[in-house]
Specification:
alpha+beta
Length: 57
């Protein structure tokens, strides 16, 4: 969350790449962490692009 809200290091935008996004889904995971990620995906800062990748088609 702090990385997404910080200013870009270079250029006008930040690009966050989250690899193996399927691994973020867990039965025993933290609901708070899941909600924080969902909020970032639904309402990213104006200067931020979020890219999720997956090993599962």
């Amino acid at each position: 969350r702090s990385l997404a809200s910080s200013a870009p290091a270079m250029g006008p935008r930040k690009i966050l790449i989250i690899g193996r996004a399927e691994a973020l889904v867990s039965q025993a995971g933290s609901p708070e962490a899941a909600n924080a990620l969902l909020k970032l995906l639904e309402e990213p800062p104006a200067d931020t692009t979020v890219i999720l990748t997956s090993d599962v088609p």
